[in-house]
Known about the structure:
7 helices
Amino acid sequence: MEGCNHNERRKVSHGLCDPCYRSMLKQTKPEYAALCRRSRQNWKKANPEKLKAQRRLYDIRRRARLGGPAFNATKRHRMSHDEYLALVERSGGICGICQKKARLYIDHDHNTDVIRGMLCNSCNAGMGALGDSVDGLMAAVRYLSQESHP
Length: 150
């Protein structure tokens, strides 16, 4: 049996690192694969919240890796892919205004180019339509607060 090519990892047996050794065991010993499967199923039943958190983080990272908004964001806002992933992770996959889970876009100040956070398309467009200003938002609040509308 040949060793693995993961030279940076410590070898545990047969010239293989731990992940490669476990993979080899699963392929050659069906009872080991069944034991791993049962163990994984038991962990999932015992840790539903941890599993949910892992899946949520995986989904966020997967969406960020798929290109599209990630590629455009890193190019347009001159940020590294890691900075973009950190921004997406901080948002938790939720819009900073409406708190809905949706496809998110980078919100930034058009005068200074400072990134404020992540917003869904509707909230981002609404901010832009109101001039990206507190004055525009306050005017909208005053309008919505009127007792009677004409």
